[in-house]
Every structure is written in C-alpha cells, then in structure tokens.
C-alpha cells in the first residue's frame, strides 16, 4: 500500500505504508521534509499538519469541531484549510491505499 506526499508543484514522493501506521509515522520514517512529528503523535505540536487531497477528504474525514485536533490545526504555522488534518491522527488502512496528501509550503 502506498501514500503520496505532495511536496511542491513538481515534487511528489510515493512511499509504502503498513496497515495501522499513521500518516505522520510514515512521513518521519521516510524522511519527508516538513513533517517532523515533534510530540510523537500526541496531538500537541501540529508539526504533522497536512492538507488532504480533495479527492480523499470524504474517506479520510475531518476532525470534530472543537476537538483537540481541530484546535491544534488552528494554531499550526501554515494556514488551516477545510482539508487540514494532523497526520498523527490518521491511521492508515487498505481503504486509504493511494492516499495523496500535501505538505504545507514552508512547514
Ligand atoms: S505529531 Fe504532534 S500533533 Fe501530530
């Protein structure tokens, strides 16, 4: 199973993942620039902020309003978008094989 990280207009990185890993963990393990996962997945740092590709947002879902994740996205360095998620809160499975996420510019 694979996930694609869009790093810029002309740079995509496709990397493999195992069921049960998070988007943040896969990014860190594969050296994706801009995703550092500083808090280790505790929903406390927003260094795993990503924009989910529009085509995938229904399958990935959005955080509950006023949840810890939604609040952290609001204070993330990169502008929040309707498709913003914290990568540490997305647990990957077969239904997300082929997922495309964008790493916010300047993160
Ligand atoms: S790794 Fe810190 S909020 Fe996701």
Structural write-up:
There is one protein chain. The longest helix has 7 residues, at 23-29. The mean pLDDT is 97. Helices cover 17% and strands 22% of the residues. The protein has helices at 23-29, 57-60, 68-74; strands at 2-8, 11-16, 49-52, 84-86, 99-102. It is an alpha+beta fold. FE2/S2 (inorganic) cluster binds next to loops. Residues 24, 37-39, 41-48, 72, 86, 88 line the site of FE2/S2 (inorganic) cluster (FES). Keywords: 2Fe-2S, Iron, Iron-sulfur, Metal-binding.
Relevant terms:
107 residues; iron; alpha+beta; 2 iron, 2 sulfur cluster binding; 5-stranded mixed β-sheet; metal ion binding; iron-sulfur; single chain; 3 helices; Beta-grasp_dom_sf; binds FE2/S2 (inorganic) cluster; 17% helix; Ubiquitin-like (UB roll); globular
Strand proportion, as a percent range, falls in: 15-25%
**Average pLDDT taken over every residue:** 97
Which strand order does the major sheet show?
A: 2-1-5-3-4
Terminal CA distance reads 26 Å
Shape assignment: globular
Oligomer: single chain
Family: Belongs to the adrenodoxin/putidaredoxin family.
GO molecular function, one term: electron transfer activity
Domain 2Fe-2S ferredoxin-type: 1-107
Protein name: 2Fe-2S ferredoxin
